[in-house]
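step=encode ok
step=design start
structure_in=
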């Protein structure tokens, strides 16, 4: 079966997920997180990807980026992935792949889903019951976006900057977005878009993006039965977060 083409457009936000093979861990010690973030910063700079949000979970990674060129995300993921796998294999004396196939991605409509994607990404550790508040998790962008702590990897998006006139106003407004729970329908839309490699946004946006990319839109209406997720083992519904 031919690979489904990715939709990646210049100057259009993209939500990226990469998982460990067989949902196994890809981070084993604190130094591993530091190494990944170091190469993420360098590779993003080298290949023209502005990073707005990220989270490094035990067995998968989320990124929210705006690429300068359509090829920028693939080059970013190839660069950081290759360096990190070489480090892990050498340090832990292992061989073979660390990642489960190709990364998944979804173009994001800024006006309707962008801030929801921020929240979806940075709330991963909370949904996984690893922490009670996103500020307690060290390996995400929340402390930069929500608390104003310096993070050289982060480039604020214009929608983030529009949250206030000063840094204090912006971080306060951003934290307020996390007080209510993320809408279940929005979270489901984000997950499905990643699974299908389709845009996340309203119908008009999704159709326009697919037409621009020259592919047919897949709405996912004939996809996995609704009860399948609920029937998964509780272990997978927790920290694993389905890799998404």
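sequence_out=
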């Amino acid at each position: 079966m031919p690979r489904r083409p990715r939709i990646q457009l210049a100057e259009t936000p993209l939500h990226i997920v990469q998982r460990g093979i067989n949902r196994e861990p890809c981070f084993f010690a604190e130094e591993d997180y530091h190494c990944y973030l170091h190469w993420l910063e360098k590779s993003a700079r080298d290949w023209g990807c502005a990073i707005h949000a990220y989270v490094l979970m035990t067995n998968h990674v989320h990124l929210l980026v705006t690429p300068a060129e359509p090829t920028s995300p693939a080059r970013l993921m190839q660069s950081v992935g290759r360096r990190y796998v070489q480090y892990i294999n050498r340090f832990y004396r292992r061989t073979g792949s660390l990642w489960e196939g190709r990364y998944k991605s979804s173009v994001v409509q800024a006006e309707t889903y962008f801030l929801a994607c921020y929240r979806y990404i940075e709330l991963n550790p909370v949904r996984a019951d690893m922490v009670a508040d996103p500020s307690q998790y060290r390996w995400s962008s929340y402390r930069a976006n929500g608390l104003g702590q310096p993070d050289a990897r982060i480039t604020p998006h214009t929608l983030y900057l529009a949250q206030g006139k000063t840094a204090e106003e912006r971080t306060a407004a951003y934290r307020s977005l996390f007080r209510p729970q993320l809408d279940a329908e929005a979270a489901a839309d984000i997950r499905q878009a990643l699974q299908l490699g389709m845009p996340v946004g309203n119908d008009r946006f999704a159709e326009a993006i697919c037409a621009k990319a020259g592919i047919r839109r897949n709405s996912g209406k004939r996809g996995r039965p609704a009860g399948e997720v609920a029937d998964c083992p509780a272990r997978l519904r927790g920290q694993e977060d389905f890799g998404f």
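step=design ok
step=annotate ok -> Residues 222-243 have pLDDT under 50 and may be disordered.
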